[in-house]
Amino acid sequence: ATHAPVVEKDCTSITPPYEKLLGKLERVRELLNHRPLTLAEKILYSHLTDPEKSLAGGGKIRGDAYLQLNPQRVAMQDASAQMALLQFMSAGLPRCAVPTSIHCDHLIQAADGAASDLERSIISNQEVFDFLESAARKYGIEFWKPGSGIIHQIVLENYAAPGMLMLGTDSHTPNAGGLGLLAIGVGGADAVDAMTGTPWELKAPQVVGIHLTGELDGWATPKDIILYLTGKLTVRGGTGRILEYFGPGVHTQSCTGLATVANMGAEVGATTSTFPYTANMRAYLHATGRGPVARAADEAAAKGYLSADEGCDYDKVIEINLSKLEPMINGPFTPDLATPLSKFGSFVQERGWKDEVSACLIGSCTNSSYEDMTRVAEVAEQARAAGLKTQVPFLCTPGSEQIRATMERDGVTTSLQDVGAMVLANACGPCIGQWKRDDAKGKENAILTSFNRNFKSRNDGNSYTMNFLASPTIVTAMAFSGKLSFNPTTDSITLPNGEPFKFSSPRGQDLPSNGFSLGNQSYYPSPIPEPQPETEVIIKSDSQRLELLEPFSSHFGPQNPRGLELPALKVLMRVRGKCTTDHISAAGPWLKYKGHLTNISENTLITAVNDEGGDINVAFDHDRGAMETASDTIPTIAKRLKSRNQPWALIADENYGEGSAREHAALQPRFYGCAMIVARSFARIHETNLKKQGVLPLWFVDTADYSRIGSGDTIETIGVATLLGGDANAAIKLRVLKRSGEAIEIPVKHTMSADQLNWFRTGSALNYIRSQMA
Ligand code: F3S
């Protein structure tokens, strides 16, 4: 297609420093004896703070080495940005070290349509938006206000560039990988590393090669590539791995189609997904006003930066022949339950589900590109010409103001509305459960969405809602039939006149012939705004949702008579079995307190099991005056210890803190006075988060020692002073004074690096950063 000329933006701040990256890559190649590299390795290693340090020895790196990296950009959504910003503020820096953006998308609730939903949600979340906006102004962060769009769509349209490394405080950050970069989802504390210019650490992921051959045909779309792959890999198959696509099939996909594939790499737990630079990426950059980025990328590609080396070695290769791929429907309740469309009718029958669809939803960060929307408009047009209307509620979430305005200008919105669609605000809405859906409460029903996640209750809070994932075109066609078993590629719908109507496969258009319409200009922030240090960050004194963070004090201040050993610690409890970040800091209704550490701490460990008694949310206060042992909730006892200035320790089982990067799970115990956690083993990300907040994680040398320490015991460390004195191999022991009066010694081990010891000594990573700035 020919495209209208586009006004080019000033791309200075968004063009990767390719020359510098290529220079670093040269050093990396020498260190690795010029072995051929995957694309993912090239991008990662060219962002190393110090290649010599990270790649020393040149031996096995992937899956083994810890990389210290300098990401180029950070993006944050409105829910996770709150704690990230509060932490950043407590570092005391005047501005962010890298370009950073905030996107108000998660807090917008869908109910009656874009305009009124936006207005209502802004009022009910006003104080959070005011806080985010004022912090953005103070620190020079680009602020995308409510209604501007969904974080990942805006990043793809404005900030993503081939070959860059960026972080985002949202698990679907990898969406930007559609432009051939590495975009990684992290917790707020990790984002703060990049925002403060501190190297960000990542265990070098393995690289899985996905070889795409053939061409998609008929109703199959890029969404079906990832739905199929999710079925193959399962929800854990990508953990600790980057998915790197290659082969001729990559080049036949649009850039936005690749973004859909990258987006849902999160569903298999992948660190991120990426693709070699393609002509369609170049076209997308030009169409979105980023010609300068495209030209710079062309040059970098010519020097071999933006694709894998010939003969590179993948940890595993998966073959997908696109010509054989048919549309998929995944779910319910897990994205890896993948069923080809042709078998879905019998699958519904076998399971004995009612053959009814109750709502169809399209759009979201996963599937609201111009290509997706023109494809669904074609389905809608075919149906309208036949006199059909949608049979069930049909909701559409545009990913950004640019998409919304272009859809409107090009008649796409009218095509959808003519058949009964409701267009929602440019925000997450039903994808994140922000859907005021009253008609299905408590009822078993089935919905189809073009979103990415389908865990129980995710969309409407109703655990009886079966949620199926499919491409936008399949979801749209299903809305006209209202039947779960309908296969639009083969089945007909009977028209009122008795005639059968059958859809033909829709095509769509990847980029608008008349260019993108930017829509409402007030949604666009000025690029890289200068910080306004005089701005006061708005937090109401009586706010229940936001609270400034007080820096944690060092364990080694004058109050500690034991010098560089930890002060004597009381054991709060011994946690039994699985204790995920959800057990430590529950989600659900607590999410509204994400920016208020005091309030959210009331949920600390409330679903953890106390090994002494087997109860949930029960701890004991053995020292409560002269009274007998008193049992109470875990947060209550922890708070009581804090009020007595009594630091405490926790004893934990295997893989403590698994599940997510949620930094609240480390912040909250620390806030209540936790100084040390001794576990049989730790989940790696959580262990790092504990270190960041100044909590010492220790591992039992003999895991049987776990049961030798109980609540109310007093622990003194032996050897921590030697460790802090610079001896990384210091033997560490715990001297445990049992409540019975018996004293025992238990050997433990640590995983603290030199940097992490600095965090521990000063009380937190942020304290250390602050001390370095002073
Ligand atoms: Fe928002 Fe859903 Fe995407 S919550 S960021 S639209 S996955």
UniProtKB/TrEMBL annotation:
Its cofactor is [4Fe-4S] cluster. GO terms for molecular function: 4 iron, 4 sulfur cluster binding; aconitate hydratase activity; metal ion binding. One of its GO terms (cellular component) is cytosol. It holds the Pfam family Aconitase. Gene3D superfamilies: Aconitase, Domain 2, Aconitase, domain 3, Aconitase, domain 4. PANTHER family: ACONITATE HYDRATASE B (PTHR43160), HOMOCITRATE DEHYDRATASE, MITOCHONDRIAL (PTHR43160:SF2). This is Aconitate hydratase, mitochondrial. It comes from Pisolithus tinctorius Marx 270. The lineage of its organism: Eukaryota, Fungi, Dikarya, Basidiomycota, Agaricomycotina.
